[in-house]
Amino acid sequence: MPSDQQHPQMSPDALLIKTASLTVRFGRRAVLQAVDLTVSAGEVVTLVGPNGAGKSTLLRSVLGLQRPTDGMVWRKPGLRIGYMPQRLAVDGTLPLTVRRLLSLWGPVTSEAVAETLGEVGAAGLADSPVQSLSGGELQRVMLARALLRRPDLLVLDEPAQAVDVAGQATLYALIDAIRRRHGCGVLMVSHDLSYAINGTDRLVCLNGHVCCAGRPEDVRGHPDFQALFGIDPLAMPAWLLAAGPHSHGDTSAPGGQHLHAQGHAGPAVKDTPTHG
Ligand SMILES: Nc1ncnc2c1ncn2[C@@H]1O[C@H](COP(=O)(O)OP(=O)(O)OP(=O)(O)O)[C@@H](O)[C@H]1O
Fold first, then answer.
1. Quick check: is 91 in a domain?
2. How do strand 15-26 and strand 81-84 relate by DSSP bridges?
3. Which EC class is the enzyme in (predicted)?
4. CA atoms of 155 and 62, how far apart (whole Å)
5. How many CA atoms lie less than 13 Å away from 232 in the CB half-sphere?
6. How far apart are CA 62 and CA 175, in angstroms?
């Protein structure tokens, strides 16, 4: 029986979300098959996989925006989620300041706006028109928007897209600092494999189903992971070999390696949820 109801008896204290045998079909096509996923407070879990692998669909299921066809999604009772979508669902032609953008989803005080923009390194942007922001500035503002909810869980869909390599490292370091400061869990999709492998607690390699999952230093040697990303096990790149518990948060060394996962060339429909 499909369900996304809450199941309190399944929750140790730190567990924020859990999916069990989550299956999502669109028509006859199963986009997610029997996916098991957990995220606990204070941990970063990163989803990697090819285009069309179901990463965004999994995030949407966790958010309650996509109903499971089968299996279940459990969310900790009272869980506050801050969501950073892949794209901004606001008409780019409307005149809109950052301050106004941040208040579109509910009332916020000027103090909260100033404090949160400061936290993401965008203190001077409150009165800037959204249209004038660079890619990196916009992502920081979107992160501020997610943080304004004081989330227990941050859900980030490709947070570093449209950000240059130097900016990506800074943004991922910022996300790491935020989860350390607030103790929130982070569930994100990343196409930047070098960050994913070096800056996450757990890596989930998705291609409709979970191909492999675990600590980066374990996943890097998994044949499914290597096949999906075209990695030659006899000639692993240095940044991949360096992946391990001590490299956590170090996004500088690999410098934005952007490997493209293989094995799927289908169309990727991007949904842009309008709330979070
Ligand atoms: N509402 C929908 N109706 C029908 N098909 C959908 C719907 N949403 C997603 N899909 C399809 O499901 C598949 C998975 O899409 P999803 O966006 O979850 O993949 P993804 O891994 O996030 O891809 P990308 O890396 O390109 O963002 C795609 O083939 C997509 O076309």
1. yes
2. unpaired
3. hydrolase
4. 9
5. 4
6. 19
| pLDDT of amino acid 276 | 34
Q: Determine whether the shortest distance from the Cβ of 77 to ligand 1 is under 6 A.
A: no
User: Does the complex come out with an ipTM higher than 0.90?
Assistant: yes
d(CA 152, CA 76): 10
**99 in any annotated domain:** yes
- The model carries a pTM of 0.83
Give me ligand 1 centre to Cα 97, in Å.
Answer: 31
What's 269's DSSP letter?
P
Q: Give yes or no for residue 208 CB within 6 A of ligand 1.
A: no
Domain range for 135 is 82-149
Task: Decide: 266 in ligand 1 pocket, CB within 6 A.
Answer: yes
Q: Is the CB of 26 within 6 Å of ligand 1?
A: yes
11 pLDDT tier (thresholds 50, 70, 90):
very low
User: What is the Cα Rg of the chain in Å?
Assistant: 18
Count structural domains, the chain: 1
Q: Identify whether 174 is part of a domain.
A: no
Are the C-beta atoms of residues 75 and 40 closer than 8 Å to each other? no
What per-residue confidence (pLDDT) applies to 255?
39
Nearest residue (CA) to ligand 1, atom 2: 26
Compute, in angstroms, the gap from residue 181 CA to the centroid of ligand 1.
Answer: 33
Mutate-to-test residue for ligand 1 from 46, 84, 207, 269, highest number of ligand atoms within 8 A of CB: 269
Contact 54 CB / ligand 1 (< 6 Å): yes
Q: Atom 26 in ligand 1: which residue has the minimum CA distance?
A: 51
In a domain, 220, yes or no: no
